[in-house]
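Holo prediction. Input below; ligand is zinc ion.
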Amino acid sequence: MTDLDTFITGLPKAELHLHIEGSLEPELMFALAQRNGVALAYDSVEAVRAAYAFSNLQDFLDIYYAGAAVLQTAADFHDLAMAYFDRAAADGVVHAELMFDPQTHTARGIPFSEVIEGLLSAMAEAEARHGLTSCLIMSFLRHLSEADAFATLAEAGPWLHRITAVGLDSSELGHPPEKFAGVFAAARAAGLKLVAHAGEEGPPAYVTGALDTLQVDRIDHGNRALEDTALVERLAASGITLTVCPLSNLKLCVVDTLADHPIDRMLALGLKATINSDDPAYFGGYVADNYRAVAAARGLSRADLARLARNSLTGSFLPPEAIAAHCARLDAFVLAE
Ligand code: HPA
Ligand code: ZN
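Structure of the complex:
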């Protein structure tokens, strides 16, 4: 039998909750700052890493939006995404659903076309280089207005056929899902899938709002749903996927220690939980690091880990034939262990 590390990286898996801007490693941040003549608030890679001590979501978001200022051209977005894809492929990721935040860039005068063309060219290269497929989730910043989200949806018009879903991220508290009911309805009418961050810091009612008002296909995070028994039963019965991010939860103080992480409780309650990295450059690890960390902290079995990987495949927005093919490979891998 292989060791647990090899087992984890060998599991064919999808990554469903990854902000591409959150994969900006300090080394690349410095290289892009130099390339584009952007001044950084830090004088070394070590100083950047030392600043990554967060006590809540907003602490992180302030640093994350500042870091994104080095991203200016399609080449920058391409290089950012390729660096992520190379690491994801090494972690056994066979399919990745990338969130990107256009408003973080268009608000700085970066054209939407630069952002998306850079990402799309990297996605094609990742498929050619690694056989890793991917798709895009265009996320609206919930601290901005719904009108701003509508303007972003309009701006995405020429590329709508290249975008799989819309999402909702940024500061959760005080910005309930209902604020975006109209733009999510418009995205749904345009044939897009829908996801939303809910229950990371926000109350269970935000998860209910994402389900009832936004009619999402997946919940990003969902941790605080556990506070509401009826909601847990509803989530379990509907089989909706939760994209859980253990190292993110630790760094943003959603849990005090990984030993308190509810990932195995979620599985035991019948929730369709998955493991994801969220913002790996900021939270201390890529997707396999997240599997390893909770496996160690919560004593997950190989069967639990395979269940989590299977949930990621079946919870993806891939067509059913592709999901079936990946699941068959997963089953063969587990059987051979
Ligand atoms: N939560 C909300 N918004 C975000 C996150 C997150 O974890 N990462 C990037 N934007
Ligand atoms: Zn997130």
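The first helix runs from residue 4 to 10. That is the main takeaway for now.
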